[in-house]
Amino acid sequence: MFIKEAIILAGGRGTRLRSVIKDIPKPMATISGKPFLEILIELFENKGIERFIISVGYLSDYIIDHFKKKKLNVKITFSVEKKPLGTGGAIRLAMNKIKGDYALILNGDSYFNVELNDLKRLQDMKKPTIFCRYVSDVSRYGKLIVNGNKIEKFAEKNSNGPGIINGGVYVLPKKIFDNYPLNTNFSIESELSKNLTKNNYARAIVSDGYFIDIGVPEDYDRAQNELKKIVKKKALFLDRDGVVNVDHGYVHKSEQCVLMDGIVNLLQKAKALNYIIIIITNQSGIGRGYYSEEEFHLFMKWLNKSLGNLIDDYYFCPFHEDYGIGKYKRKSFDRKPNPGMINKAIKYHNIDPLNSIFIGDNISDMVAANRANIKCKLLLRNEETNTKVKFNIIRNLKEANDYLI
Questions:
Q1: Confidence (pTM)
Q2: Which H or E run contains 376?
Q3: Is 219 considered catalytic here?
Q4: Is 27 helix (H, G, I), strand (E, B) or coil?
Q5: Which end of the chain is more exposed for a tag (fewer CB within 10 A), N or C?
Q6: Which of 219, 241, 361, 365 is catalytic?
Q7: Do residues 210 and 111 touch, judged by C-beta distance below 8 A?
Q8: Catalytic residue among 109, 239, 361, 365, which?
Q9: 77 and 97 together in one domain
Q10: What is the per-residue pLDDT across 257-291, written as a single tens digit (0 to 9) for each?
């Protein structure tokens, strides 16, 4: 894909959403605890965008400070409006920071899951391209008259009924702004509309990707329900014995349990950073007959209460092919170093393994995490390195805090 840079328009005041989000910029409104702007960046990072220029204006320091503290896999820079410039003026200013010949333009308050590979259908990329969406009611957005890949008309917002709308995702060649002075206030939509008759000026790609605009309270509420099913979560996976509690051997009673130093602080920080927390534990003590599954569940309930109820879920494997008794004597894809338990958690909780962390105290933890494509693997106090799995060795749980972002 030739487009690697995107401009996100995040400078608006968001007056229609003010009753809901109060004193924060509209693109920073949270969905399931995550700022909408982060959700947008993750969506297009997964589509190959490597560098984002965030155009900011209203409450710009709030956005800038937030992303300066974040450790992301993409490069973030900012284009700051000293006065309102409209969509066109904001893009014109931000284009100064684009290194390539083209930029993807995104509205900071709308989520549109377009396929950038669809651009391959258009052989000539010298003209502006708009990703469009068919909706049941165009009254809020205005209507586009589209014939094939050609946009014939921008209708006014007083249109109603079903039709095709501008989805707020553009691909613009940098050169189209050569004749526009910097810091001039203008609308990109009106400029594209005025120039339509000039050599089929703008083209359309009609996408059926998921679309929602959070700009009004009712759609922001809808996004809370719909996007949380789409947006993947990040997880902190933990082995139990030796990571959450001291490993005294087959711990299954409260009187046997000593919490690891620093575990509560680690969990509290992870929660504050919107990780879901999941324990992944081999429990061959059940298979060996040392305690029952019921006793194990009762202990886990007590353990979570002792940790402030910060654990979201846990997965355990009682099977052992050599030492198991009765039904527990068998191989299991769940038993680490196999990734079965982690894979089940990823599927059930809609987890992104590339934004997740696994902390264990055994090489089998690292191998299981690697097989489940967990990006960050932390081995606690264990100097064994005779494995091809790449991981980081930490001396204590306090060090693990540095990996939480």
A1: 0.69
A2: strand 376-380
A3: no
A4: helix
A5: N
A6: 241
A7: yes
A8: 239
A9: yes
A10: 999 999 999 999 999 888 999 999 999 999 999 99
